Structure formats: C-alpha cells, structure tokens
Amino acid sequence: MTKLRWGILGCAKIAMRACIPGIAQSETGVVTAIASRDLQKSQEAAASLNIPKAYGSYEELLADPDIDAVYIPLPNHLHKPWTIRAAQAGKHVLCEKPAALTAAETEEMVSACEENGVLFAEAFMYRHHPRYARVQEIIASGEIGDIRGIHGTFTFSNPDDHANVRYKREWGGGSLYDVGCYPISAARLLLGREPEAVTTHAFFSPEHDNVDMMMSGLVEFSGNVALTFDCGMWAAFRNRLEILGSKGRIVLPSAFVTPTQETTDFQVIVGADERTESVTLLNQYALQADDLAYAAWGRKSLRFAPQDAIANMKVLDACLKSAEERARIVLSH
Known about the structure:
Layout: E1 4-9, H1 13-25, E2 29-35, H2 39-49, E3 53-55, H3 58-62, E4 69-72, H4 79-88, E5 92-96, H5 103-115, E6 120-123, H6 130-141, E7 147-157, H7 175-191, E8 197-205, E9 211-221, E10 225-232, E11 234-245, E12 248-252, H8 261-264, E13 266-270, E14 273-277, H9 284-296, H10 306-325, E15 329-330
Helix pairs in contact: 1-9, 4-5, 5-10, 7-10
C-alpha cells in the first residue's frame, strides 16, 4: 500500500517518544524527514529513529517534494506561522495541541489550509482510540441514564525545569494549554455540543513567568450539564475522566495517556454492579496518523473537522480570560 510520507518539524520529546514511533507503527505512514534549526540535532534524531533525511531548517523540509504531510510539535506560539507555511508548501498538517494561542489564530491556520487544498488536524491523539467510541455507545444506550456531569483531571509536577517552554508566557505556556485542553475537548466530544459559559480560577506563578501552573474550572453546557476540571504542572500526577449519569457512571482511570492494557480498560458502574470494559491496547498516535492519511487519500473524511480545533480554542480563550478577570465568561458560537 502507498505510504503517506511525513516530515517532522522539530525534535520535541512528544515527537521523539510518541508521534514518530506511532507513525512508524501505523498502517499508512512513514517518516521520511525530520528538521531542526540545529542540523546535528536533527541528524542525531534521524539516526536514532531510522529516518532517512535530516534537515537543518524547517524551510528545507517544507521544500522537499517527497513530503506529503508534516507534524508540528513546536512551541505553541510557532504553530500558526509554520502551519501556514506548510499549507503554502502543499503539505497536510497535523498540529500538536493546542492548535494555537487563540481561536482567531486557529481560524487563520484553518483558512490557509483550506485555501491551499490541504488538511488540518489538531493532535488530540486520545480521541482516535476506539475506547472513546465505546464510551459514546454506552452513553447512547442509556445504561448510565442521562448525563448529569463530567469531571476531568490532568496534572503533573515539573516546577524545577525553569527552562521548559511550558513556563514561557509569550510562547503559550501554562497548564490549561498543555493539559487542561484534554478534559475540555473530551467533554465537548462526549456531549456533542459546545459550552455556554466558563468560570475558572488559576494559580499564576511568578516563578514561572506568571503562567497558570494550576487551574480549576466549571464549563457550563446546555441541558443543565457541566464539566468540572482541573489541570496543573505543579501537582501530583492524575489523568482521569468520570462521566456521571442519573443511573450510573463511567470511569476512565487513565483517560488521555494509555501506556498499558490496564490503563486502556475502563469501568462502568451502575448501582451495585461494576464491570470492566476491556479495550484492545492500540497505539493512539498510529491511529491518529492513519485517520489523517485516509482523509488525505479521499477514502474517509477527517475524524474531526478543523472547525473542532477552532471551537476548542474558543473555550480555552474564555477559560484564560475568566481566570485573569475572576469572572464568568459567556461564550458565543
């Protein structure tokens, strides 16, 4: 089968440890080239991951006619310019989350891709795993009743790494962008609609360029349903989602990262009955790459339209504004 040929813009850890190995395990993709502003760095990355080509600039990679699609794991403030340049070079784009710094930037990126006839996808890898389709099936079946609320958490602790790009405010640092975007996107996915308002509270750390090191929030949806979430980069590790229904609940102990079979499984609890839903351990990054490839070849539509990225960024915009202004922010879609 023909392979979709990928180029990687940058040697970020998420690319090296997850996305590149995922593409290598996919049915459809092959990583053809990797670029860094430091040629030695890209050459070392290429050698370690068996990538044929290494470039000393992103421009060189985009000029390579043997590249069909690019993955952009660069710091958040670079997502917009390099997505637009990739689109202008005729490459499909898989952009690491969050798509950009604002919804307005994301709209520009999506428009550039549409104008140049290429695809744009935001890299929320967890949504491509079949367990989320299974969760949706259980909700639709009525087994847990009407959804009364969703609670999501994603926290980790890394406060001593002061040089980390997550701790640079102008670069789009902060826990909301890095991990809070996951439970927000999950609630939108499972409820199938956009929120009406948000209220958040954040710990902006002077030691870390005043980025939000912790945020807690309430995201209001129609139908008297809300997401409560917290996210953080200076807190014990958690990675969990609970969907609460009028009759029962669904608990995903490891909602967004699934390194083992045990963390892929989830629980359905109705009254005194509890069962474990066992889902095959699959590489989420490989599935994400396959979904884009099949869309690029016209075999399927994109699993998630580019407008989904714009909608998610609108919620993130509102969450940051709410935390900064200490106010409830009403959304318009």
